[in-house]
UniProtKB/TrEMBL annotation:
Domain CRAL-TRIO: 42-208
Native source species: Stegodyphus mimosarum (African social velvet spider)
Identification of the protein by name: Alpha-tocopherol transfer protein-like protein
Annotated GO CC locations: membrane
Pfam families for this protein: CRAL_TRIO (PF00650)
GO molecular function terms attached to this record: phosphatidylinositol bisphosphate binding
Length: 240
């Protein structure tokens, strides 16, 4: 476990040591419980998901210095992979992004582009229970500071689904979720086109994870070391 990873927990909790330690403990409880389901993977094992361009960190930050991550689940090959693999990469993406000071200090803005994401896909592969679980992990176990969650091109059913899980989400997250529909100008009020890909009306050209994949594969040794970290076998951790 390197100092930069520990610092991520402290920064996420505004250097409140007690709260940071609680999240760190919850992270390792989560890591132990879901090993080889959502955790303990190497970047090379995520290569297939990265190549789908469904999770894409942008090369530039927004005006507040925050990392921008574009998520396009409509590009994910659900028949070839699994929702667990989708979630597992999301967990490890934060560890990869932590190698940049922008993510560690300023947090991130997550943009969900739901173009081509159908009701059939949602019902077949993703349950509401899983969505609540994912948001809870983000809040309680992962030291990733989401400063804004923007949803664009959402189909009509998605607002209904969000309404079903909204009350189960922490208020802090609810206040940071914004829906824009097909109105990309609404998104641009928060994140300017200069730092967005072509798919979101931006100036950066189409989404392409080629360079990010190279970066991820170069972190293989870091992940091998992190997989070894965790509770001692004699410890029976309890999350809070």
């Amino acid at each position: 476990m390197d100092d930069q990873f520990l610092l991520l927990f402290l920064r996420n909790k505004k250097h409140n040591v007690e709260r940071a330690f609680k999240t760190l403990r919850n992270y390792y409880f989560f890591k132990k419980k879901y090993s080889r389901v959502f955790t303990d993977f190497l970047p090379s094992e995520h290569e297939k998901v990265i190549s789908m361009n469904c999770y894409s960190p942008m090369p530039f930050t927004d005006s507040h210095g925050r990392t921008i991550v574009v998520c396009q689940p409509g590009r994910y090959k659900w028949e070839e992979s699994s929702v667990d693999a989708f979630m597992a990469f999301a967990v490890d993406l934060g560890i990869l992004l932590n190698k940049t000071e922008a993510f560690s200090i300023c947090g991130a803005v997550l943009i969900f582009d739901l173009k081509d994401f159908s009701m059939e896909t949602l019902l077949k592969f993703v349950s509401l229970k899983f969505l609540i679980f994912a948001f809870r992990c983000l809040q309680d176990c992962l030291p990733y500071s989401m400063k804004g969650i923007h949803v664009v091109n959402e189909p009509s059913f998605f607002q209904t689904c969000y309404g079903a899980i909204k009350l189960a989400l922490p208020e802090k997250i609810r206040k940071r979720v914004f829906f824009h529909g097909s109105n990309l100008q609404g998104l641009h009020k928060y994140v300017t086109p200069e730092v967005l890909p072509e798919e979101l009306g931006g100036n950066l050209g189409p989404v392409d994870n080629t360079e990010f994949l190279k970066f991820a594969l170069n972190q293989e040794s870091l992940f091998k070391d992190m997989i070894k970290c965790g509770f001692k076998k004699t410890t029976s951790p309890k999350s809070e």
